[in-house]
């Protein structure tokens, strides 16, 4: 069936339709495709980034066991010291979560940074905002676009308060961060090869264990197909993780592995601090150590957490984002390591 017959079928056009009518339909179709593509169809509302004007209007509750109450809306959120005193502020931090993880589960880290005089944008990536339809059609491009937009918002604060910009990313968030900075580095029009002074990667998905590529075996299933999540029920956004999300993650891993060699210099200006548990179920410490040996020109430090004593069950060595998941002792070591990475 040729394109004209397709247009006739889809839009109810008759064979004697005028050239003008066909032209209108073609332009309308092109506009529809552009408006709904992951690259051109994003507006600031779609990205769900809070406005800068909301910095002085938020109130931050203390992090306690109400932390486990599921939020009704998982949007990006500011955590800012009150009052916003330029003399005491230490920096701006872009904080990003993991795959099928509630963005609000990063709030305890955000609160900790806020108490230590950092402004934090706790980001909510598309597919993690309690919208199952969004999760089922997600593309890797959506995550990159959202992260790049968040960087631009944070840079406005950096300029306003004359502060350094940092990133703190967990699991998938680390992979999105590395790919986004790689992309910025490839933009010849940009005079900033890397906008971050330092980056901290918690259990980074850029170095996953070999068996995490199993979704490739399900190539015959649609993106919307959901696979039951085995993560803790209080932490996951949805009961299932769509193949669309797994495929987007694998695509970012493939891009990272394929393009890193030719662009490794973009990491030289950004000290990388990696924090993880040595027995992480998903991330390969061996791969990270091999990467460090092969790229000695990159400033890279690895901090390993001690044995965890979580108050949740089942427990996961990969889930190192709050004190309920890792225990008070490991939480103290984790937060001290984060502050040390930011301030030394």
Describe it.
The protein has 344 residues and is an alpha/beta fold. The chain folds into 2 domains: 1-36, no CATH class; 50-343, Alpha/Beta hydrolase fold, catalytic domain (Rossmann fold). Helix content is 38%, strand content 12%. It contains 11 helices and 9 strands. The strands form 2 sheets. It has a 7-stranded mixed sheet, with helices on both faces. β2, α4 (107-115) and β3 form a beta-alpha-beta unit. The longest helix has 22 residues, at 140-161. It starts with a helix and ends with a helix. Residues 1-18, 20-46 and 58-72 have low confidence and may be disordered.
Describe how the helices and strands are arranged.
Layout: H1 3-11, H2 19-35, H3 44-47, E1 77-79, E2 91-96, H4 107-115, E3 118-122, H5 132-136, H6 140-161, E4 165-170, H7 172-186, E5 198-202, E6 226-228, E7 240-242, H8 243-263, E8 272-276, H9 285-294, E9 300-304, H10 323-326, H11 328-343
Parallel strand pairs: 2-3, 2-4, 4-5, 5-8, 8-9
Antiparallel strand pairs: 1-3, 6-7
Helix pairs in contact: 6-7, 7-8
Quick description:
It contains 11 helices and 9 strands.
- Give the averaged pLDDT, no decimals: 80
Domains (count): 2
Task: Give the radius of gyration.
Answer: 22 Å
In helices, the fraction of residues equals 25-40%
The total of helices stands at: 11
Question: Could you say which overall geometry the principal axes of the C-alpha atoms support?
Answer: globular
Structural class: alpha/beta
What is the strand arrangement across the widest sheet? 1-3-2-4-5-8-9
Pick out the low-confidence regions: 1-18, 20-46, 58-72
CATH topology of the largest domain: Rossmann fold
Beta-sheet strand percentage?
Answer: 5-15%
The CATH superfamily of the largest domain is known as Alpha/Beta hydrolase fold, catalytic domain
